[in-house]
Amino acid sequence: MHLPPFFEIGSFEFAKHTVLIFLSVILIVGFFMWAIRKQALVPSKGQYLGEVGYGFVRNSLGRDIIGEKEFRPWLPLLFSFFFFILVNNLFGSIPVLQLPTLSHPGSAYVLAIIAYVAWVGVGVKRHGLGHFMAKMTMPPDVPKVLYVFLIPIEFISNLIIRPVTHALRVFATMFAGHMAIMVAASLLGFLITDVGGIGGILGGAGALFLGIFIYFLEILIQVLQAYIFTLLFAVYVDGALQEGH
Predict the structure, then answer these.
(1) Does 150 fall in a domain?
(2) Which helix (DSSP H) or strand (DSSP E) does residue 163 occupy?
(3) Is residue 2 a part of any domain in this protein?
(4) How far apart are the first and last CA of the chain?
(5) Are 229 and 238 in contact (CB under 8 A)?
(6) Distance (Å, rounded) from C-alpha 235 to C-alpha 231?
(7) Which residue ranges does UniProt annotate as crossing the membrane (predicted)?
(8) How many other C-beta atoms can be found within 10 angstroms of the C-beta atom of residue 97?
(9) Is residue 45 part of a domain?
(10) Given pLDDT bands bounded at 50, 70 and 90, which one contains residue 15?
(11) Is 242 helix (H, G, I), strand (E, B) or coil?
(12) Residue 196 belongs to what domain range?
């Protein structure tokens, strides 16, 4: 599933997923630079695709979630999150490449850390450390006596578990989907080559159908996870910016 590294520099491993991460950056930058090269009033197909992609992030993940007054400074990060995760996820469905780089936990947690620092940082900057911590740990309209129990629960939930699950969600789905396709492919090979006969052929046909179904299901999940990760980040930013109780 994950090939040995090409070479190592100390604890840093330069492996296939590292190459794919660099490739994703080149592809994303290259495509959008190509799409906006002319900026014609009547857009070409490439410019139209670029504008649709940008408009989707701008409107659905920026303006609609964070709000008209606040979303513009966050567009570059929202845009980068969505397309970086999307392309790296889709690598898992491209023959030969066949590796979603976010099936490595380290890649997913780096993105979650960037998101965490961004929304916590803007929350502290906007409200001050004390007020921000109160927003995160003291729900409004709750009897004060319950804060003895709620403050530690809310602190763990919002400031510890939230970034962990933010990364774990995309990592786990990419890892599980990739494993499922590998199992279906291995089952197909086993039934045809080792079992053989009519039973092996029929079983292999079933395994092939299962593999195709999982393949297209994984493509859907790859797109959804890019959307969900970016959507959650926008929700966290909006929560950090809003006035508390």
Answers:
(1) yes
(2) helix 162-190
(3) no
(4) 49
(5) no
(6) 6
(7) 14-36, 74-94, 106-124, 145-164, 170-191, 198-217
(8) 15
(9) yes
(10) confident
(11) coil
(12) 7-241
CA distance 4 to 1: 10
State mean pLDDT over 88-106. 88
Decide if 1 is inside a domain.
Answer: no
Q: One-letter amino acid identity for 190?
A: F
Contacts of the segment 17-24: beta carbons below 8 A, 24+ positions apart: 17/99, 17/101, 17/104, 17/107, 20/88, 20/91, 20/97, 20/99, 20/101, 21/88, 21/101, 21/107, 24/84, 24/87, 24/88, 24/91, 24/101
Domain count across the chain:
1
pLDDT digits (tens, 9 = 90+) for 190-212: 777 777 677 777 777 887 888 88
31: which 2 tokens?
């495509």
Scan for tokens 């969600």, then name that residue: 169
What are the Cα distances from residue 205, in Å, to 82, 189, 192, 211?
A: 36, 11, 9, 10
Question: Taking the alpha carbons of 11, 14, 18, 23 in that order, is the dihedral positive or negative?
Answer: positive
Among candidate residues 230, 206, 198, the one with its CA nearest the CA of residue 84: 230
